[in-house]
Every structure is written in structure tokens, then in C-alpha cells.
Specification:
The complex is a heterotrimer of chains A (293), B (394) and C (584). Chain A is of the alpha/beta class and 293 residues long. Chain A has eleven helices and eight strands. An eight-stranded mixed beta sheet of chain A has the order 2-1-3-4-6-5-7-8, with helices on both faces. The longest helix of chain A has 21 residues. The mean pLDDT of chain A is 96. Helix content of chain B is 42%, strand content 19%. Chain B is globular, with a radius of gyration of 21 Å. The termini of chain B are far apart. The model of chain B has no long low-confidence stretch (mean pLDDT 96). The model of chain C has no long low-confidence stretch (mean pLDDT 92). Chain C is globular and about 125 Å long. Chain C folds into four domains: 64 residues, Alpha-Beta Plaits, CATH 3.30.70; 129 residues, Fumarate Reductase Iron-sulfur Protein, Chain B, domain 2 (Orthogonal Bundle), CATH 1.10.1060; 169 residues, FAD/NAD(P)-binding domain, CATH 3.50.50.60; 127 residues, FAD/NAD(P)-binding domain. The chains are: A alpha/beta (293), B alpha/beta (394), C alpha/beta (584). Chains in contact: A-B, A-C, B-C.
């Protein structure tokens, strides 16, 4: 693999992420692609802990930890201050989990994007409130077990489409990315860096612990998510122009679900229904991109 | 230069003079005139500042966390529900030791929707680690706001400048607006003791385990203690330049008073009149205006009240299940003195109801009459609940 | 305390982090431990000479052609030859073949050897210091020359005795020029001589040689090969015009003027038969191969058969010779029709006469190319004797007295091919060296440690204690390759002479490929079991516990921080890592 990133690392070893943590891989490459001159706003999420307990920090950039729901707001404030100080070079980045983005943090995110604040909001998505013990969020996918959707109460709501919600704001740049596709991820980070106004990256970050997945499958499952069209790779510019970055060959969702313990209760009927739902969403995306299946 | 200004405008002038760089606010009656004025100043270039039109009060203060951590002077204003919504971030601000200044217009909390004056909103936040100043008039509001920046940046604690809804925020009074050059001598440009710096990266607000958290909290406590010493010094500097000072509290005719009325906010102005009249009638009445609630000026208050036999506290607020909050604070300050005056608590003016001179005088006579307080809190001026209303509730 | 200091003091304990997390040695969390473990690629296990093929491909992709060429030379002195004439069993076992198409390994081998030749490179090979024993080698064919080559690397002086006037054996006197040009052969023979091996041409040895060798030589390696075709075994085979196919090929290679009347029949189904037929075509005639079984049963390399048929050679299947008669200028070959009655254990058809059906083929010449054997009976290896040590292609007889005698090449090889001859020479060298140093009983154990993938092939690099010896013998299966990292890609197209040209010239049929094409083909190789520094482990480690350094693979794992998640092992596309339980 040849990645167009700096050799320099912006993360130290010794952090306390779970073995096989997808979020750790995602952060590493976000920072390598952004380079120096980044201030990061970090609302409550797994990374609040991974970032290191006092007095340690695992990141080589300034970090402002913030309250759970304030990712979009604190970043707006940082940007305003930097602008007033005449700093045009520093990139303001919010790094939040799915909880702090889709749910409790949605208002602040929507507010910031509506104002077209000049920052990059990165949501690394492990599909539940993992830090507090695997509770359901609106990003938890249809069919998943979590501690608040246990047994027969497994989640019967679809995963909220955060990119579409932001596209409705006519956000200048929004894209999905995946830790198994590092070249695509770094390209999108760099593109985001060059764009002005609000930018959103939705990065799929597998969680072996919360998904009941063997840790060594962390990257493989991420790749399968794209290959099955469950997590398509695409970007939207100006809230209008859709580009699909990867078109996999036929790959049934079954394999993806079978590998993860959080889906072990799904019957063949459930899986068939999910396959239809995935196909439907994919068709919709194709149409938006002006393509046909 | 003397101008006729609303309390809101007095705040806005102070913020302008202070050279604030980022303002972040969400509109709520009766704070709106403050932010509208500032918005205009930012738009027409009178102020060189960014105005963030955030989507909620919670986000307003959160945005300032970001700005202040990035090393710039900040301001926000809110009231009532808005302050309640900010609660989580109020704690965050003091914990982060950020010198943010807020104008808070005392407004009643819902339900019922009530936009008029009530102190419960700001007092419910007295535990959040913010310095709190209760202002009586427009001049004091302007002066206190300027002083707030100097003080906050010295001790690294946020400051809440509190003003009554409508009676202060929307009341026009003559206010001397100081000259910018003079203000600059009093308030130098902001020199942060720490800030987010890409050249010297560090992480603000990380996870802190039990083995370190307590010391951090203790440091906040010490900063509050320091404030008791710092504030008079700041007032000295201000008085030298502008000729005005207020004190953490202002005793009026307390030295030989038997009964002292303790008030805050605009009620103080009315009470000054009442006490004067009582004195004319030969009553040994006194007034203690409490300006600084946090940190509570324990020594000064004890000293001011040492001769009094009784203190009648007029609270325009209430802590349900306990009592009026200024009364509570006073009792706590006095209880360990072997000899201290009795504290009589009175609740008046809740939800913007008028506190008239007659009501205040009634408080005085009630206090004089009773040997001991017969109730912890006496609610003044309550109406009879009608049969019809009572039946509709059952 | 002074005021200013007191205020500064109040910011003493403040929630701000300023040191790194490196003090946490998260390696203590581990209960599984990953490590780099190179394994054996199926191609190298399939190669009788055990060439380190995956390594060769990696070096080729990096443009390190000389190093790649040397990697071959460690196991096989004849890459220019084998790259042309080998039957490449490596390609049949190539894992890429299950993905899209097998790697064109022999093209790359030839490319590397030709490039080294063109640039006149001199190889630097690991060699042991000189030893006192001397070895005599009978026959300068591929097995004899290989034996001498490997013995020279091990420090032994070798004298090679060759009956004809030029070394090369079947490479010089059998395989036609259109398959193996002379310059390529001569270059590689010269390289062997460059190691100090002495070749004495024009020396035919008598059967008393072995006894006479006592005192002068400590061992004799007999690799004289097969230069006689067997008798057809039918009446009329001694008629004029019925000839030995191998002798015909030798005449062609001697450069003798040969006129050939057309048509000719060639009896047999091996490479020699095909070679004879293709030569006949180039001499302007019509050639018919007469074979008793079917095309798919022919022992000749399928590629050769295809080429022959393309060039117009005719193949008559399921016909066995019965009798030869003369009819004026013609020879009439009577044949019996055969039919398939079953299959043997190798899948070859078993045939029997199809009733009494017969046929007649009218030709001008008949060549026999069946049942080959050595020139003289004393050169035949004794039957029923067992080797010291399990040797696939060679026979080692310690005898208990001087000199030790070994047989190799076509005399003893499992499959009669050049690469098996090379393998026999290497086996002889390694076994003999062990025997001299530790005695015959030590041979088997030593061989066990140098086998490639646990199979018959031996590795000289491993024997010389090179890094290859550390490799796990586990042969990487296709299921162990992480296909997510590979895309379908066409195998290179072998450029060849046009058929019309092939029919009228002895010029080499297969043409050169460019460096560009060779590199691209090598890039298709999975590099099964070897680390090619693709960096997946480095990139995907969530703990940044894979570090680039100057270690063997240019990467190592920082066990202070490795949590044992195993992502590196799964994402290694080529199973060059292993995950094992951490010892507590």
C-alpha cells in the first residue's frame, strides 16, 4: 500500500484502546493526513479515555476535551477565536463518536453546519455508546443487540443516515470513509482540509469489544461492510453532487452478519429482510449519484 | 461621558470597552437587548469581534469554552431557562478555569412561563464555581462588567454579572460611560495563562482519576478565597481611575442598627428609601446590600452585622424544601459565631411581583414584632386562592 | 504567601495533560503474540530444485534483478536453461492459479538469467572454504555439471569427464536449438567452470574407472544420462531408414548436414519424440508422431506437444508398431489399433489392442524415441540398492570403501527432466558433504533440516545456514491468502515466433520479454509466505506497535505495546506472520 501521508506519527503507543480498536486506526490516519497545525475538539466518547488520563495525552496536537453534546459548538468557538487572532492556517477538527454526533450532539452539529462554520467534523462510528458499555444509539444498525436492545428487543429501527441529514444542510463537503480503505480515507481527509466551510467525515470504525467480534477481524469486517453495500463509500459536494467511490461485486450481507456476535440472534428471514433493506438503500444512493444498478 | 441607558445597554457598553473578541449568545427575553446591541456593534464595526449566532444557550457557553481555551476574551448573556440549560457548561467553565464573563438577567423559571424578575435562576447556579455579582443600577452594571474581566483574568474563574429583569435590564438611567483610553489603562489586553497552542500541544480537560481530581477542585476553592482579597484591589484600581467603588457588600446605617434589612438587586434601591424613612420615625433600622454572593464575604458580613439583633433577609427567590437562598447563605455565615443576630427570612417579589416600600416596611415591623422567627420563611403578599381555582385543581 | 504567587499557585493543579502515554507498557495485556514467520511458497516446494521462487519474484518487483538471479543460482546453476526448457511444476502449484492465472515463473527466470548474461554480471555466491576431498564426475550433462557446481560451492575440487567434445550433455546434444540456443548454455557452463570446476572433454571412461579412481578421487558421481533409444521390438526395425531418434538429435546438434526425406514417422510420446518431429518439420518435411496411448497420456511436456501440433506435426494416437517393411523407396509401418481399457494410478490410460484392427503408414524414415538408456551397461545404477538418506533423484552408495559412488540425472531421477537432474546434483553434493564430515548415518537427519516445505527438494541456502533455513516448512495454501488485497490481472503473453517462421528456422521460438513485463508479472505473484514489505501490518496496527527498522524484514513488533489483537496477522495478504499463545 502506498499512502500519500506523512511519515510522522501524531499518536503515541501506550494508549488504552481495546485490542483491535478501529477508532485508533481511524484517528492515526486522520492526523497523518492533516499534518501539523490542528486543534482538536474531543467531546465525550471512547476517545476521551483513549486520549489518555491526566497527565498523559496520546496525541501530539492540542486537544480540547468537551462535554458530550458540544462538539459542534466548541469547535465554532475555537474557529472564531483563531479567526480573531488572524490564524488562517490551523484546522479546527471535532472528533466525536456516533453518540455525540447522531444523538446528543446532533443539535450542536446541525447548528454549526447551518452556520457553515469553517471546521471539519469527524464522526468515528462504532455504532453504539461503546464507552459507557455498548448501549444503543441512533447509529446502531437494524438488527443489532446492545445492552439497551437486548434479547427480542434487538434494534428494529434503521440506522440514522447522518450524511443525508447533513447534506440537507447543503454542507460543502460530506463523505463516508472506512478504516479498511486507507487510501480513500486519506484522500478524503485531504480534500476536506482543502475545502472551506463545514465538512463532515463519517468513518466506519469497527469495535471488536462491542460487536462481539474477534479482535483480529477488525479490519476485515470493515472491508466487508463496504463490500456488502452496508456502508457504501461515497462523497457529496455542495449538498448536491454525489460520487460513489467504490462499487463492489455481488456480496451478500449474510457473511457480514455471521461474523459478529451482536447479530447472532438473526434468523434467515431477518437476514433476507435486511438484504432487501440494504439493496433498497443502495438503489437510492445510485439514483442520487445519477447511476443505475 | 454620561448617557441615559438601559441596564442592557450599560452591559453592552462595558463589553465594547473591554475589547471582547468573541461573543456567543442565544436570544431570550429579557436579555435580548444586550445581544442585539452587541450584534449591531459587531456588524457596523464599532466592535472588532465575532458574534456567533448559536442555536442554544448550552452551545453558546460551549462555544466560549472553545474560544477562551484558544486564548481570546469572550462574553455571553442569558436569562432564566437559558441559564438553566447552560448548567452543565457552567460547571465546565469554572473547572476549566476559564475567565469568561456572562451577563445574567434574573428571570423566573417555567412552568408557568414568566419573563419577569426572580433570582432563583442565578442562585440555583451558586454551586457552579462562578463568581456572582448582583447589581443594583445601570452604573453599577457597567462598572461591574468591566471589573469582572479584570478579576476573572486574575484569578482564572468565570464571573456572572446579575441584573434584574426589566427593573434593571429595561430601565433607563443616567450612566457614565468611561473613555476607552482610560478603560485600557484599567483593563489590559487579554494575556492568557494557558491556551491551545499547536507549537506546545497539550490536552485540556482529560480524564482525571481520584488521585488527582481533589487537588484540582481545591485549587478552585483557593481561587475563590483569593477573590475575596483580589476584588477590593480591583476596585481600588477602578476607583483611582473612575472614582467609583461598590464593595462586596455595602452596609448602610448598620453600625447602630437593631434590625438590618438584607437585600440584593433593585430591591436594594427601594429599601434604601424605606430605611431612611424608618430612621426618620426613630427606628434603629439598617440596610445591608449584598453584591457578591460568590465568594460569600463571610468576614465582612459578620463584621457589618455584629451590632445587630435581628436581620431580615428579603429573598426574591426560593430553594424548595429549604428557604430563601440569601437567608440560607447568611445563616451559614453567622451560625458559628457565639453571638449573632437572629435571621428572619422573607420571600417577596417572586416572578416579578412588585416589591413596594409598604411591603418592605411590613417586613421590618413583622421582624420587630416577633421575638423569634415563627417560620423559616415568610411569604409576603400571597393572594388567597379562590374556591373556583381550588376546585379546578382537584 | 505573596499575592501573585498565590494566584499562580491556584493554577497548579489543573486538568491539563502534557506527557505522552508511552509510560503505559500495554504489551502486558497480551495473551496472544504475533510474530513474523516466513513460510514456504507452494512453487518452491513443487520445484525439484527447491528454488526460492517467491523470493525471486519479490526481488524482481523491486528491480533487484541481480539479487533475484543470485537467489536462483543458490539452488540451480541453470536458470537460462530451465527458464526455457523446464516443465515448470512450480506453475502448476501456483496459488495465483486459483485466483486468476498462475504466474509465468519460467519467463521471469529466463528474463533474469538473460539480463545477467547481457549485462555480463558475475554472481557473488556463498561458498565454504576448500576441502581436501576430490570428486570425479562422469558426464558433463545437467546432473554432472550441477553436482560439480554444488560440490565446488561446498569447497570440493571436481574433475568432470565428458565423452563428447563439448560439455552440456542433453542440453548440448539433445534439446534442439529452437528450444535452447547455444550461447545461453555456454554462458552457464562457463560460470560453473568459473568456480574452479575442471571439465575434460573427449574423455570416454571405461568400466574399470571406478576402481582406478581409488586413491585419486574420494567419490565418483555418474551422470552420463541416456543416449540410446530402446529397440522398438518389432520385425523390420533393423531396416535401413529406421533410426535412433536420440542419435538423430545429436547429429542435428553436431551441425552435421542432414537431409531428410518426407514424410517421417516418430515412434514414442516423450520429449525426444516431439523434438525429433519438430526438427523434421524445420528440415522441410512432414512429421507424424505415432503413439500407443492418447495425447493426454504422452510423457512429453504438454506445451511442447502444443507447439509441435501448431507447427504442423501430426499426431496419430492409439497406434502401436507391429512391423516394418520396405516397399521401394518407402517404409511401410504396420500398426495395431489400441483402445483404452482403464486408468493407472497416475491417471494415464491403460491400453490394449483393439481387436485385430491394423493400419499402415507409408513413410520414408522411421525414428524410434522410446525406452531410453545409458550408452554403456556399467553406467547403469545397480537395481534394488537403497541410498544413504532419502534422496528423490539420486543414489548414494557409501560402499564402505573408497571411492563413494553416486548416480544421478536421468539414470535415477524421479522425472527425467533437466530440473530433476539439477536436483540430483544438489542432493549428491549435500549428502556427500554430510557423509564426509559426519558419516553415512548422519545423512538422513541433516537432509530433514534442509528440505523445502518438508518435501523432496533440498535447499543449498538452508544447508549453508542462510536465513532460508529459518523458514517454516508449512506450505501456504490458497485459502490462507487474503484475497481482498489482489485484483484480477491477466498473465503475461509469451511473445513467440510466427508459426510460418518456426517451420523454417531453428531460431528460438519463444522471444524475450522486457523488464517492464517481467516486473508486472512478478507483481502478480502473491509472494506466498514471505514478507514483501507491503506495510499492511504497519498501517493497521491500532497501537503503532509495528516499527520500521533495519531488522531482517525491515519491520519488527514492539512488544512493549503490542496488545496481541491479531489484526496484523489477518491483514497480512500472504501468511507471513503467525499468532501464538503468549507464555505467561
Amino acid at each position: 500500500m502506498q499512502l500519500d501521508v506523512q511519515d510522522r506519527e501524531y499518536m503515541y503507543s501506550g494508549h488504552v484502546a481495546c485490542p483491535g480498536c478501529g477508532a485508533a486506526v481511524a484517528m492515526r490516519f486522520l492526523l497523518k493526513a492533516l499534518g501539523d497545525k490542528v486543534i482538536m475538539v474531543l467531546p465525550a466518547c471512547c476517545w476521551s479515555i483513549i486520549a489518555g488520563p491526566y497527565p498523559q495525552s496520546t496525541l501530539r496536537i492540542p486537544v480540547i476535551h468537551s462535554a458530550f453534546e458540544t462538539g459542534g459548538a466548541v469547535a465554532s468557538g475555537v474557529r472564531a477565536a483563531l479567526d480573531m487572532k488572524g490564524d488562517k492556517e490551523t484546522t479546527v477538527v471535532t472528533w466525536a463518536g456516533d453518540g455525540g454526533t447522531f444523538d446528543i450532539g446532533f443539535q450542536a452539529l446541525s447548528g454549526a453546519v447551518e452556520r457553515n462554520e469553517d471546521f471539519i467534523y469527524v464522526c468515528y462510528d462504532n455504532e453504539a455508546y461503546m464507552n459507557t458499555g455498548v448501549q444503543r444509539s441512533s447509529s446502531t444498525p437494524y438488527g443489532a443487540w446492545t445492552t439497551t436492545t437486548p434479547g427480542t428487543e434487538w434494534k428494529k429501527m434503521r440506522k440514522k443516515n447522518i450524511v443525508e441529514a447533513l447534506v440537507a444542510h447543503r454542507i460543502p463537503y460530506a463523505a463516508t470513509a472506512n478504516i479498511a480503505f486507507l487510501e480513500d480515507l486519506t484522500r478524503k481527509v485531504k480534500k476536506a482540509k482543502e475545502t472551506k466551510g463545514s465538512r463532515f467525515l463519517h468513518i466506519y470504525a469497527s469495535c471488536p469489544t462491542g460487536w462481539k467480534l474477534p479482535s483480529e477481524m477488525a479490519i476485515k469486517i470493515a472491508r466487508m461492510a463496504v463490500q456488502t453495500n452496508i456502508f457504501p463509500l461515497y462523497e457529496v459536494e455542495g449538498g448536491i453532487k454525489y460520487t460513489i467511490n467504490y462499487k463492489p461485486k455481488e456480496y451478500p450481507v449474510r457473511e457480514y452478519f455471521k461474523l459478529q456476535g451482536r447479530f447472532s440472534h438473526l434468523t434467515d428471514k431477518d437476514l433476507a429482510q435486511i438484504q432487501e433493506m440494504v439493496n433498497e438503500d443502495w438503489e437510492m444512493l445510485l439514483r442520487k449519484a445519477g447511476e443505475h444498478s | 461621558m454620561k448617557k441615559v441607558l438601559e441596564g442592557s445597554q450599560a452591559v453592552a457598553e462595558a463589553v465594547r470597552l473591554a475589547g471582547v473578541g468573541v461573543i456567543s449568545a442565544y436570544p431570550i427575553t429579557p436579555q435580548t437587548h444586550i445581544v442585539e446591541q452587541l450584534s449591531t456593534y459587531c456588524a457596523d464595526g464599532t466592535m472588532n469581534a465575532k458574534f456567533l449566532r448559536v442555536e442554544s444557550e448550552h452551545s453558546a457557553l460551549a462555544a466560549l469554552i472553545g474560544s477562551a481555551t484558544s486564548g481570546i476574551r469572550t462574553f455571553t448573556a442569558t436569562s432564566g431557562q437559558g441559564l438553566a440549560l447552560m448548567h452543565e457548561i457552567l460547571h465546565w467553565t469554572s473547572g476549566a478555569r476559564l475567565p469568561i464573563v456572562m451577563a445574567e438577567v434574573n428571570r423566573a423559571l417555567a412552568p408557568g412561563w414568566n419573563i419577569w424578575v426572580d433570582q432563583t435562576d442565578s442562585l440555583a447556579q451558586r454551586d457552579t464555581g462562578w463568581i456572582q455579582f448582583y447589581c443594583e443600577n445601570g452604573q453599577e452594571t457597567l462598572d461591574t462588567t468591566l471589573q469582572a474581566y479584570r478579576l476573572a483574568e486574575l484569578v482564572n474563574l468565570p464571573v456572572m454579572v446579575v441584573l434584574d429583569a426589566f427593573y434593571l435590564s429595561h430601565t433607563y438611567e443616567p450612566v457614565d460611560v468611561p473613555d476607552q483610553k482610560k478603560v485600557d489603562r484599567f483593563l489590559p489586553p487579554y494575556a492568557p495563562k494557558f491556551q491551545a497552542d499547536t507549537k506546545n500541544p497539550c490536552a485540556f480537560g482529560p480524564l482525571v482519576a481520584p488521585d488527582n481530581y481533589m487537588e484540582m477542585r481545591y485549587d478552585i476553592a483557593r481561587a475563590m478565597d483569593d477573590t475575596l482579597e483580589r476584588f477590593p484591589q480591583v476596585e481600588d484600581e477602578y476607583a483611582r481611575l473612575f472614582g467609583r467603588r461598590y464593595g462586596a457588600m455595602e452596609p448602610v446605617m448598620c453600625r447602630d442598627a437593631d434590625i438590618v434589612l438584607l437585600t440584593s438587586g433593585t430591591v436594594t434601591s427601594t429599601t434604601r428609601l424605606v430605611v431612611k424613612n424608618l430612621r426618620k420615625k426613630g427606628e434603629k433600622a439598617g440596610l445591608l446590600k449584598l453584591k457578591m454572593l460568590r465568594p460569600f464575604p463571610v468576614e465582612e458580613v459578620r463584621e457589618a452585622l455584629k451590632g445587630a439583633k435581628k436581620v431580615a433577609v428579603i429573598d426574591r427567590n426560593f430553594s424548595f424544601g429549604a428557604s430563601g437562598i440569601f437567608a440560607q447563605e447568611l445563616r451559614a455565615a453567622l451560625c458559628n459565631l457565639p453571638k449573632h443576630p437572629l435571621v428572619f427570612g422573607y420571600i417577596a417579589g417572586i416572578g416579578g411581583r412588585d416589591v413596594t416600600p409598604a411591603l418592605i416596611e411590613d417586613v421590618y415591623w413583622k421582624t420587630k414584632k416577633n421575638k423569634l422567627p415563627d417560620k423559616e420563611s415568610v411569604w409576603m403578599g400571597l393572594k388567597e386562592v379562590s374556591d373556583a381555582a381550588r376546585r379546578s385543581g382537584s | 504567601m505573596p499575592r501573585k504567587k498565590a494566584v499562580a499557585e491556584s493554577l497548579r493543579s489543573f486538568p491539563r495533560s502534557y506527557i505522552s502515554t508511552e509510560a503505559n507498557k500495554t504489551g502486558s495485556w497480551r495473551f496472544l503474540k504475533p510474530r513474523y514467520e516466513e513460510k514456504t511458497a507452494p512453487c518452491s516446494a513443487a520445484c525439484p530444485a527447491g528454488e526460492d521462487i517467491a523470493r525471486v519474484e519479490i526481488l524482481t518487483t523491486q528491480g533487484m534483478f541481480k539479487e533475484a538471479w543470485q537467489t536462483i543460482l543458490r539452488e540451480n546453476p541453470f536458470p537460462a536453461v530451465c527458464g526455457r526448457v523446464c516443465y515448470h511444476p512450480c506453475e502448476s502449484r501456483c496459488n495465483r492459479g486459483e485466483f486468476d492465472e498462475a504466474i509465468a515463473i519460467h519467463n521471469i527466470e529466463r528474463f533474469l538469467a538473460d539480463t545477467a548474461g547481457r549485462d555480463e554480471l558475475k554472481p557473488s555466491l556463498e561458498r565454504l572454504p576448500s576441502k581436501k576431498q576430490k570428486i570425479a564426475v562422469v558426464g558433463a550433462g545437467p546432473s554432472g555439471l550441477s553436482a560439480a557446481y554444488f560440490l565446488a560451492l561446498l569447497g570440493y575440487g571436481c574433475d568432470v569427464f565428458e565423452a563428447s567434445e563439448e560439455p552440456g550433455g542433453i542440453l548440448r546434444w539433445g534439446i534442439p536449438l529452437y528450444r535452447l540456443p547455444l550461447a545461453a548454455l555456454r554462458r552457464e557452463v562457463a560460470q560453473i567452470q568459473g568456480l574452479g570446476v575442471r571439465i575434460f572433454t573427449g574423455k570416454t571412461l571405461s568400466k574399470g574407472f571406478i576402481d582406478e579412481a581409488k586413491g585419486r578421487y574420494d567419490a565418483v558421481f555418474i551422470g552420463c544420462g541416456h543416449y540410446r533409444s530402446g529397440d522398438i521390438g518389432v520385425p523390420g526395425e533393423n531396416l535401413e531408414g529406421v533410426e535412433d531418434g536420440l542419435k538423430f538429435l545429436q547429429k542435428m546438434r553436431k551441425g552435421d548436414r542432414v537431409t531428410l526425406e518426407s514424410p517421417v514417422a516418430v515412434i514414442g510420446g516423450g520429449n525426444s519424440a516431439v523434438d525429433v518431429a519438430r526438427c523434421a518439420v524445420r528440415l522441410g518435411g512432414r512429421a507424424i508422431i505415432v503413439y500407443r496411448r492418447r495425447r493426454q497420456d504422452m510423457p512429453a511436456f504438454p506445451g511442447e506437444v502444443d507447439s509441435a501440433l501448431e507447427e504442423g506435426v501430426e499426431l496419430m494416437e492409439l497406434l502401436a508398431p507391429a512391423k516394418v517393411e520396405r516397399d521401394g523407396k518407402d517404409l511401410v509401418l504396420h500398426v495395431r489399433r489400441m483402445k483404452v481399457t482403464g486408468q493407472d494410478e497416475k491417471g494415464r490410460g491403460i491400453v490394449a489392442p483393439d481387436g485385430r484392427k491394423t493400419d499402415k503408414i507409408r513413410v520414408r524414415r522411421i525414428f524410434s524415441a522410446i525406452g531410453e538408456g545409458p550408452e554403456a551397461p556399467w553406467l547403469q545404477p545397480p537395481k534394488g540398492e537403497k541410498s544413504a538418506g532419502v534422496l528423490e533423484n539420486c543414489l548414494l552408495l557409501p560402499r564402505g570403501k573408497d571411492p563413494v559412488v553416486l548416480y544421478g540425472g536421468d539414470l535415477t531421477a524421479a522425472i527425467k527432466s533437466v530440473v530433476n537432474a539439477v536436483a540430483s546434483g544438489k542432493e549428491a553434493a549435500i549428502a556427500l558433504d554430510t557423509l564426509f564430515r559426519e558419516g553415512p548415518k548422519a545423512v538422513e537427519n541433516v537432509l530433514k533440516n534442509v528440505r523445502v516445505g518438508g518435501g523432496p527438494a533440498l535447499s543449498m541456502e538452508a544447508y549453508l545456514k542462510g536465513p532460508r533455513g529459518e523458514r517454516s516448512p508449512h506450505v501456504v495454501a490458497y485459502s490462507e491468502i487474503n484475497q481482498d488485497y489482489f485484483q484480477l490481472a491477466r498473465r503475461l503473453s509469451q511473445p513467440r515466433l510466427l508459426i510460418v517462421e518456426r517451420r523454417r528456422t531453428f531460431e528460438e521460438v519463444e522471444l524475450r520479454v522486457s523488464a517492464n513485463i517481467a516486473i508486472r508479472e512478478a507483481e502478480r505473484c502473491f509472494h506466498c509466505g514471505l514478507c514483501d514489505q507491503c506495510d499492511n501490518c504497519f498501517y493497521f496496527c491500532p497501537d503503532l506497535a509495528v516499527i520500521r527498522d533495519d531488522g531482517v524484514h525491515r519491520r519488527s513488533i514492539n512488544y512493549d505495546y503490542c496488545k496481541g489483537c491479531g489484526v496484523c496477522v489477518v491483514e497480512c495478504p500472504r501468511n507471513a506472520m503467525a499468532l501464538e499463545e503468549e507464555k505467561l
